[in-house]
């Protein structure tokens, strides 16, 4: 597939098209500028307005979901809201494990990793931006892995 790579049972979404996503808010776009400031991630999912925009991924038989995200350093971190669903219509809020990373090379954006595991019976994940008062361009999702 063009949008990412399939490694065995894992789908790697490089955020360079919408092909690996199921649905997304219309106020979402791909940001391909300044890859060096984002640890070499040449494309990222980004909001165009500072609202509760979201992206959904679907993988039948999913057991693990992981994203990397970048936060602009000049405002407080506002973590995403995560939901899972077996059918794409009934959603349950879940809390991911959050791993802060170091500042991205050649930039000052802070990288974080979010992991959901134990997703047996869930086929959909929805990630929602919940920082409605900050900059629309932060945070950005650099990659998603579905296993």
Q: Which strands sit side by side, in order, in the main sheet? A: 1-2-13-7-11-10
Q: Helix content range of the residues, please?
A: under 10%
Distance between the termini: 16 Å
Sum up the overall morphology in one term.
globular
Report the structural category: mainly beta
CATH class: Mainly Beta
Sheet having the most strands: 6 strands, antiparallel
CATH homolog superfamily: Galactose-binding domain-like
Number of H- or I-type helical stretches:
0
The CATH architecture would be: Sandwich
Low-pLDDT parts are none
Order of helices and strands: EEEEEEEEEEEEE
The count of domains is: 1
Gyration radius, to the nearest Å? 14 Å
Q: Can you count the beta strands? A: 13
CATH topology, which one? Jelly Rolls
The average pLDDT is 92
Organism: Stigmatella ashevillensis
Protein name: F5/8 type C domain-containing protein
Descriptive report:
The protein has 147 residues and is mostly beta strands. It has strands at residues 4-7, 10-13, 23-24, 28-31, 44-47, 54-58, 64-71, 81-85, 92-94, 97-103, 110-117, 124-128, 140-146. Helix content is 0%, strand content 45%. A hairpin with a 6-residue loop joins strand 8 and strand 9. The chain starts with a strand and ends with a strand. The mean pLDDT is 92.
